[in-house]
Amino acid sequence: MFLGVLRIVPMQGIARQCSCRWGRGLDSSGYRDRPTWRGSGVGALDAALAAALAACGFAPAGDGPADLLVADMRGKTDDLPREIAGHSGPGLLICDSAWPDLAHPIPPGITHALLAPFADDALRLQLRLIHGQLAARHGMAPDLHARIADFAAAGEGALHAMLIGLRRMPAVNATYGTAVGDAALEAMEQRLERQAARLSAGSALTLRLSGGDFLIAYAMAEERLGWQVMAERMLRVVSEPLDVAGHRLRLTARAALAVAREGEGPVSLLDRLSAGLAQARESAADPVRWADRQSDHAPQSGYRLEQDIVQAIERDEITVLFQPQFAVETGRITGAEALARWQHPQYGEIGAGTLFALADKADFTRVLSRHIRQRAMQHAARWTGPLAPLRLSLNVTAEDLGEKGFARRELAMLAEAGFSPRRLTLEMTEQALVPDLKRAAARFAALREAGVRIAVDDFGTGYSSLLYLKRLPLDYLKLDHAMTRDIGGAEADRIIVRSVIAMAKALNLKVIAEGVESDAQLAALRAEGCDYFQGFLRGRAMEAEVFAEFAQGELG
């Protein structure tokens, strides 16, 4: 029985901190140095904790700066050491359930927590996750800065840049060998060059950096939304099958975007992009991130689209797509998750991440979210005959959950659509759940009483805390793409997924894996006891009519 409490908090600022010590963060080939730790508080850390830190890749900081501060407060009633609150990197708290400061959800400076008693595996899982979040990339070529500066000087308009980071390359190298991995990178570089040239009429700069990272730049009048849409198209190009040395590979990527500021040099620009890419790698919901302090991912021109979004809803232009979900053990289709797409008349297809970012700037998130769920329920109500057993999964935002009468209105919407609550699953991200567990628990309890099931979405990108997994009335835990995509390759990734699935099983939760793209990943998930999966291996998100035909064929 797994008894530890595990909390992971997004690491704002860590990429910048690491870049100062480990380079600029543009080399994805691995560490040059091991991340460092220091104990914070009274007395030295016990030998078992120090050994676990060493086993998970950490080195003692000594007199130098520490990447991770560890406060072991077990058996103590002291206040948290002051240096924790001022630390810019991760802070790990280890304490008993009776420690006084647990009255606060997240003590200042703490990003991760373990609640004693816990198993050794819980400690090692926590440390591996922190180690992964501290992963830094480095080692720029000396002339890279000059090439970017020369390109910017020769162009007209603002320099728009995107840093694209491929995922799953370690798994490709481990499975097929580095020769195939190198060939895949060369082929991807050519693909990105062709696409960037086509979208920019031949005026883009495309550079392959270290590892699986690519820089694309273009000078034009500032157009943030257009640049974001271009990035989303580039990521779709990356995800298309790649035939290399007799192997068919499927790669995915994350991207960070920036518009160069007046007087900004290449070093500063690349630092911003590197930090943005690090955040994008941790997010399944937002594969494209803006690398500036004004906005994480919403284009500044978004205010011009407020009326467009309103009219798009009125004209039913926002399409609901359905990505099928399957049972791991049998391969049988069990349902689908509803996703949103907007076909904008000027910018083309806009994905859910950008769509909700724009809606958030326009204070329109709740209306948009409700509209998508309503349309999805109406489509799913037509799943009759052989499709009648299929479940529907819908995403719920923090704004939805914060609305009074949310549960009552959700059930009324189901009744109006004619869709059974017992076939519905509502998914909520960790970040939206944690701030007010009591309110979330009450509203979810009312929905579960009517038959609705509740899932935690994108597990592994937020707090990842057993504390809320135990307090909330939950049915499913969804593994984030980042926790599943490399499971067939690196052993460390598999160990983490194995531990998370074991935690879920101990709490009687079913596990759904997102982003499954290969038979090797599916086989590994089956071996670890995962219950359900979704991903490109068996089906992309598709329009309602296409999904209905697809499901009919699957159910035969």
Q: Based on the coordinates given, report the CATH architecture of the largest domain.
A: Alpha-Beta Barrel
Radius of gyration: 23 Å
CATH topology of the largest domain: TIM Barrel
Structure annotation, total helices: 21
Strand content: 15-25%
Shape: globular
Largest sheet: 8 strands, mixed, barrel
Report the uncertain regions. Answer: 1-33, 136-142, 293-304
Structural class: alpha/beta
Q: What's the number of extended β-strand segments? A: 23
The H-level CATH homologous superfamily of the largest domain, spelled out, is: EAL domain
- Distance from N terminus to C terminus (CA atoms, Å) equals 40 Å
Arrangement of strands in the largest sheet: 14-15-17-18-19-20-21-22
Protein name: GGDEF domain-containing protein
GO molecular function: cyclic-guanylate-specific phosphodiesterase activity
Domain EAL: 302-555
Domain GGDEF: 157-293
Task: Provide a descriptive summary of the structure in words.
The chain has 556 residues and is α/β, with parallel strands linked by helices. It has an 8-stranded mixed barrel with strand order 14-15-17-18-19-20-21-22, surrounded by 4 helices. Strands 1-6-5-4-2-3 form a 6-stranded mixed β-sheet, covered by helices on one side. Helix 3 (82-85) links the parallel strand 4 (68-72) and strand 5 (91-96). The chain is globular. The two termini are 40 Å apart. Mean pLDDT is 78; it is low at 1-33, 136-142 and 293-304. InterPro entries: Cyclic-di-GMP_PDE-like, EAL_dom, EAL_sf, GGDEF_dom, Nucleotide_cyclase, Rev_trsase/Diguanyl_cyclase. This is GGDEF domain-containing protein. It holds the Pfam family EAL.
